[in-house]
Structure formats: C-alpha cells, structure tokens
Amino acid sequence: MALLQADDGRTFECDKNIMVGRGLLEGISFDEPDGLDLEVSSLHASVTWNPKVRRWELRDLGSHNGTFVDGDRVVPGQRAPLLEGSRVVFGRLGLDVIDAAPPPAHAICRLTGDVRVGRNGALLLPDEGAPEVVILRTDHGWQLGPPALLADGDDAAAEAVEGLVEVTAGQRTWQVRVPSHTRQTVRSQRSLRDFTLVVEVREGGDRISLMLEHEEGCIALPGRAHHEVLWMLARRRLTDIEAGKPRAQQGWVTQEEVIRDMRSGAADPVSHLNVLVFRARQQLEPHAPADYKSLVERSSARTGVLRIGSERLRIDDFGAWG
After folding, report:
1. Which CATH architecture has domain 2-100?
2. Best exposed site among 53, 78, 92, 307 by fewest CB in 10 Å?
3. Residue 226's closest CA among 295, 138, 137?
4. What is the per-residue pLDDT for 184?
5. Higher pLDDT residue, 217 or 240?
6. Is 308 helix (H, G, I), strand (E, B) or coil?
7. How far apart are CA 252 and CA 219, in angstroms?
8. How far apart are CA 257 and CA 239, in angstroms?
9. Where are the domains positioned within the chain?
10. d(CA 248, CA 251)
11. Closest Cα partner for 130 from 274, 271, 275, 259?
12. Among 141, 166, 144, CA closest to 155
C-alpha cells in the first residue's frame, strides 16, 4: 500500500482507491481545526492505483488551493504519478510518499472476523510468526503455496490465484482477496550492478537504512526490518573480499547463522528469514527491475546457504550517536 507522511508526523495509508479532503468518512481526511488543514478543500483530490503501469496516481478534483507533486501543479482532471520519495502538497499542506507499494492482498477469517493484510507483495496465514500458507505477488501474477514458496518464489506446489478465494490456515477458513495484476510496461532500465549498495548503521545497529548510489545521484530507501539481514550479509561479503577470497566463495552464510545473529523470536524462524529476504528484494524491484532478485543469492550447491548478491558494497557505521 502507499504511505504518505505529513510534515507534522501524521501518516496516511492508501490500500485502495480513495478520496482526499476534509470531513470525509472514508479516505484521507484532514480534520485539524486550524493550521494548514484548512487549505484542503472538502473534496480535494483522489488517489488511485493504475494496474496497467503499476503505480499510484493522483488527480486534482478542482480544489481551491491546488495540488502539487514535486513542485508542479497538477492540472484538475489530469493524473500525476505518485512514486516513492515524491513530495505532495495540498494547498500548502505538505506530505512525502514514504512507500508506493501496490495495493495489498488481504484476508478475513470467516469465524472471528480477524483481518490479515499483506505487505510488500506477501500475505502470510494464519500469521507471520508461523505461516502455513503464503500468497505472493510475482511477475506472473499471484501464487499460493506453502512457506517454502518464500525461499525463491518458485515451488511445484504453488497455484495461481485471482480475485476472491477461500484458504484454510490455522484451522480456520479465510476469505482471501488479491488485487488485479498487470505486468508493468514502463520500467526503469537500471540493474543491480548499476548501484553501490550502502548500508548506513546508526545507534549501534538499532537503526539501519539502505542507500542506492549511482552515477546520477543516490536513492534512499525507507528503513525496514529486512535491512538488518542485508547488514549481516554485507559484513560477511566485505570480510571475504578484504581477505582476498575468490568471487565464487565470497559472502556465503548459512541461514542458521543469520537466524542466530538476529536472535529471531519467530515461531518459525526459517520462514521469517525467508519473508525478510523476499521483502528486501521487493523493495529493490522498482529500482532494479531486471535483476532485483539477485540482491540475495541462494547457493545452488548447498541448501539453506545465502549471500548478498553484489560486490559493490559499503557499510557506513555512524556509531552510537550517528
């Protein structure tokens, strides 16, 4: 789902096509009694997901004070793309797009009414701590299968799913709805080798973020839990590079070592690690669509062995006070 964060810290979610305005019962509603919220029209704009080009788009609905995306005014009735990192202003109320993931799959338990919402293209049932069923968004559409599907996105037991389906997990029946899927036609041409992966470590590892440096500048990716895994894998590969090991031998580590270093408290730590690896790849996909899955490589010779897939690495450790 898309996430927009206002300058005052408020965060708004877009998990479907929504309206933006004041006094709305549904959608993004700016209802502070004073300040810049008053510059937002009662029905100011709409935010919709365009499946043909796989992106969120914003349309001004004839607002009084205007809508701006990255400094450009949006002509009423026309659509402007909302990308991760975009700056949006309604009147003078500013927000940043901190995530631009597609609408998520979601599930509702028919017995209890419990809701599960997928993140970064993965929905896990009955929960993320001990998944029994996984629904993944892939280049070929949504697939349903066992937790092993997370490891590499290809499992003989997987089946294609569309629309609304019923799934049994955790001894309960879930109604699962997946959004429509259309392959992206307008894509970046960069690949993983075009970037230097920079892992920024602050407060002794409590805050870890990822930067993608390239010849034209730098892309800052929002902090996520999977960045800890990338930090561990980057450390191992850089150590092997400095030791002069051949490329084919650099950086390999068992999943048991990663789980031990993470001190994972998940009921199924292997599946939890696979979730983090999947989401790390998905976060890179908009920037390196050709080979984003190679961000984390798995050994073809040894089961449960993986490494970070790039030699262009740097770790910037800012210490406890960074």
Report:
1. Sandwich (2.60)
2. 78
3. 295
4. 43
5. 240
6. strand
7. 27
8. 16
9. 2-100, 106-177, 192-317
10. 9
11. 271
12. 144
